[in-house]
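Intended use. Records like the one below are meant for learning the mapping from a protein sequence to its folded structure. Do not use them to infer anything beyond what is encoded.
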Amino acid sequence: MMNLCDLIGRQYQNEERNYRMSRRRKNLLLVLACTLLGAGAQVLFKMAGLALGPSPSPLQMVLCPPLIAGYVLYGVSTVLLSFALRNDELSSMYPIISLTYVWVMFLSVWYFHETLNFFKVLGVAVIMSGVAVLGLPDGWRKPKDGV
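Structure written out for the chain above:
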């Protein structure tokens, strides 16, 4: 038979676990948003490079709207990433940033009409598999019974 202290203790543990999961979801969404912002910044850098030509002057670079916008996106991404990482495991959240490469590849194909090949698709599959494995719950990664 469960006494009142045990019941309250279990309720507290459930609430704490729900809070951690909710915070983790928010951090995960924030990191995913950072990957999209980083990919957008990369596209803007490519656009700036195309617009500036082979030998731009420093003044042209400072006044180039796509380059400025790319830096702004990177800055916003960095600030948001610092918020997401402050309350979660760096080793489980930071690898998600590698999804930026996936978004950049898709945006490059869509916007710049770059071509896909087998190796690019394979690379994306490896990146996504790695992120998926790192995102597994702790129980999946830890050996049971010391085996």
